[in-house]
Amino acid sequence: MKLKRTLDRGSSRFGAAGLIAYPCSVLLAATSVLAFAPAAEGGPRVKAPVTWSWNGKDAWLPSAKAPSCGNFRLQPPAQVAALNGWLPPGRLNETAKYYKAHGALSFTDPSAKGTVSAAIDGYFVRGAAYRENREGQPNGPGSSVQYIVDIQHPCGFLVRYDHLRTLSPALQRIFDRSIPVGEDSRTTNVKPVKISKRQVLATAVSVPDQPSPRQFDFGVYDLRRQQQSSHSGEWLADHGSGAELANFAVCWPRLMGSTGVQIEALPNIAPQDGTDIC
Predict the structure, then answer these.
(1) How many other C-beta atoms lie within 10 A of the C-beta of residue 182?
(2) Mind listing the pLDDT tens digit of every residue in the chain (278 residues)?
(3) Are residues 32 and 266 in contact, defined by beta-carbon separation less than 8 angstroms?
(4) I want to staple 17 with a disulfide (CB 3.0 to 4.6 A). Which of 9, 46, 96, 205 is the partner?
């Protein structure tokens, strides 16, 4: 089942997309469609997982009472041994006037092949498929299809992957059926699909001929509350970002234990940038 498409990619290393703000009533109406799903044709309705929706202004709202997050921990989305660099979330460059709430991980493999896996148990709730080339031009010469995958934990965490290139067969079937390749990176909501921690999501990232760094974007967002690093909507717009995700971003290596320490020890791909999250 396909729901309303929204422009909510947020910024990426290739550029930034704006946001379309929808009234809370519209978003909650869309979310309510997901409240119950039939177990089988003619069978009883089965309660679906709690999902979170942006209210179009300053908060994310759960579709029902959310479970506790407890001592929330992430599984690294890639093996550290396969990486040669990273980008911390919350990167700020006042000279170039950009702010990127998500981070990124870069594969050593020259063809950008590497296993990308689910960092949490949760549900695939929305995604996007769009074309981009090595210069970051949408539908430009030499462009290839790039995928965005959003996975939510019912307690209120969202993990976003961007610049995935070769999806797992299971994810590819969902995209082929419900998320067409668009002219831009607007996402499409789908009926929640269960995802297990460590489940393979993709086996290649970026564009085929991308020079180093060959990376995929990785962002983690605590939707329960705005973070201390939150910025005004005017400031974010001036820095090519949006409040929907930017103000909820967290320093995800700190949720990965000792492996997160190893990730932070990797070379910083953009050392000229500061970070207000990590």
Answers:
(1) 15
(2) 433 333 334 433 333 333 333 343 333 333 333 333 333 334 445 577 999 999 998 999 999 999 999 999 999 999 999 999 999 999 988 777 888 999 999 999 888 899 999 999 999 999 999 999 877 788 878 788 999 999 999 999 999 999 999 999 999 999 999 999 998 899 999 999 999 999 999 999 998 876 666 899 999 999 999 987 778 888 888 887 888 999 999 999 999 999 999 999 999 998 888 899 99
(3) no
(4) 9
